[in-house]
Design a protein that fits this description.
With about 425 residues, the chain is α+β, with helices and mostly antiparallel strands. It has two domains: about 1-50 and about 290-425, no CATH class; about 65-275, no CATH class. The chain contains 16 helices and 13 strands. The chain has helices spanning about 1-15, 15-50, 85-95, 130-135, 150, 160-170, 205-210, 225-230, 250-260, 265-275, 285-330, 330-340, 345-380, 390-405, 410-415, 420-425; strands at about 60-65, 70, 100-110, 115, 120, 125-130, 140-145, 155-160, 180, 185-195, 215-220, 235-240, 280-285. Strands 1, 2, 3, 4, 5, 6, 7, 8, 9, 10, 11, 12 and 13 form a 13-stranded mixed beta sheet that branches. The longest helix has about 45 residues, at about 285-330. The two termini are about 30 Å apart.
Length: about 425
């Protein structure tokens, strides 16, 4: 085998231009496939990160009424919808897929929300428990966070995000200032920021709406103070942090099943309150949304891979053609080897090895070209790429297979030459 490889390399080097032109089809095909696969993987990772949040691994489980989030701002909470107790939260924490869990209440676009005489528009109010900031990945950038005592003694304190700080306080130190929530004064004690600082990559207006960028400010108050401003028995939503990204869907569905056990499924509840019994907790299937977008992207790009594969077929035909020429040129050499006792399988192995070496070298050059092409595409088109090691290994292996398959007919022709006729060939 080593001798066959050495002879193959000698033959390739002695006909450099011819060998390169023969490899060109393989190089182009492999380079195109590597570039396409790298772009697909990079795009899929971007989609996944945009929806999930760069390793945040949090799943929001909301109380839904049909396809819309249940809103009890102007309506009475149905009697069968109960507040989530600590026992249910502990059951969720005991799940192997969950690393942390938090319960919260929320309101948006509060009419009576002011700082001094300035109304705070387009803001979200969150009533949170002691685990919210850790689960959601927030840090306190200024001031202090909520102490345990603040949840127990109904302290009217608030933490804002940097959007509120910039938009409402306009460079003024917010710590110690008071904001009015439904005519109740809350003292600002801190400013919270997202730990990761992750923002989805927005390439066009479709991406903007797909990933639902939100610029509204956030105000956090202890969940124990929620009854001071809003309904006392208002049910909570839930956020769980999964142990890893792949566990997100399972963690969300299992947590939703546990929370739905807390809803009394009675016919009378829905009829007497005028509210449908379709109210239930549902998890946001971000992983499934990501997979759907990835499948849409991949299905389009797979067609490009098949088109690029055509150039491999053309390259394979070129290998067959040049190997037939090589057999013709070396007919006397083949006859001499057979006259000296070389068997058919020896001749067959020599020419198959030469074809395989030729295409493997083309595959390696194609891989390097494909990696370089991927970098160029990333810089010009501003799209992410992710070089796939399995794709590189498969590409090189496939190029070797192309050499063996398309080199088989010329090799068989060489092996079957009659030694007397071969020696007489001129």
């Amino acid at each position: 085998m080593i001798e066959n490889i050495r002879l193959s390399l000698q033959g390739i080097i002695s006909h450099k231009i011819r060998s390169f032109l023969t490899m060109l089809g393989i190089i182009i095909g492999i380079a195109a496939i590597i570039a396409i696969v790298s772009t697909i993987q990079g795009t899929n990772e971007q989609i996944k990160n945009n929806l999930i949040g760069a390793g945040n691994n949090t799943v929001n489980i909301k109380l839904m009424q049909g396809e819309a989030e249940a809103d009890f701002t102007w309506s009475k909470v149905p009697s069968n919808i109960r507040v989530i107790s600590d026992d249910y939260k502990q059951r969720i924490l005991d799940m192997k897929e969950v690393s942390s869990c938090t319960l919260y209440r929320t309101r948006t676009n509060i009419e009576n929300l002011y700082y001094l005489n300035k109304r705070i528009d387009s803001s979200y109010i969150y009533g949170i428990d002691e685990d919210y900031f850790e689960t959601m990945g927030y840090d306190i950038a200024e001031g202090v966070g909520f102490r345990d005592s603040m949840f127990n003694d109904f302290s009217k304190v608030a933490i804002i995000d940097n959007t509120i700080e910039r938009g409402i306080f306009e460079g003024e130190d917010p710590i110690g200032k008071k904001i009015d929530i439904n005519n109740e004064p809350f003292t600002v004690i801190g400013v919270a920021v997202k730990r990761s600082g992750f923002e989805p990559v927005i390439n066009d207006v479709d991406d903007y709406y797909t990933y639902n960028q939100r610029s509204s400010g956030l105000i956090f108050i202890p969940t124990s103070c929620w009854p001071i401003c809003f309904n006392y028995d208002e049910p909570q939503n839930c956020v769980v942090r999964a142990v890893d990204t792949n566990s997100m869907t399972t963690a969300g569905k299992k947590a939703a099943d546990i929370l739905n056990e807390n809803i009394q499924k009675t016919e009378t509840a829905g009829e007497t309150e005028g509210v449908s019994n379709s109210i239930e907790y549902k998890s946001e299937s971000l992983l499934e949304q990501a997979k759907a977008l990835q499948d849409l992207s991949s299905s389009t790009n797979k067609m490009l891979i098949w088109i690029a594969g055509i150039s491999l077929l053309v390259g394979g035909i070129g290998v067959m053609n040049i190997m037939l020429v090589s057999v013709t040129e070396r007919t006397r050499e083949i006859g001499l080897k057979k006259a000296l006792g070389a068997r058919k399988k020896r001749i067959l192995a020599q020419f198959l090895t030469e074809a395989a070496v030729l295409t493997t070298m083309g595959g390696i050059v194609g891989v390097l070209t494909g990696i370089g092409l991927s970098k160029v595409i990333a810089n010009i088109a501003q799209v992410p790429v992710s070089i796939s090691t399995p794709a590189i290994v498969v590409s090189v292996g496939f190029s070797m297979v192309v050499g063996i398959v398309f080199g088989l007919i010329p090799s068989i022709k060489a092996a079957n030459l009659n030694p007397i006729d071969a020696l007489r060939y001129e």
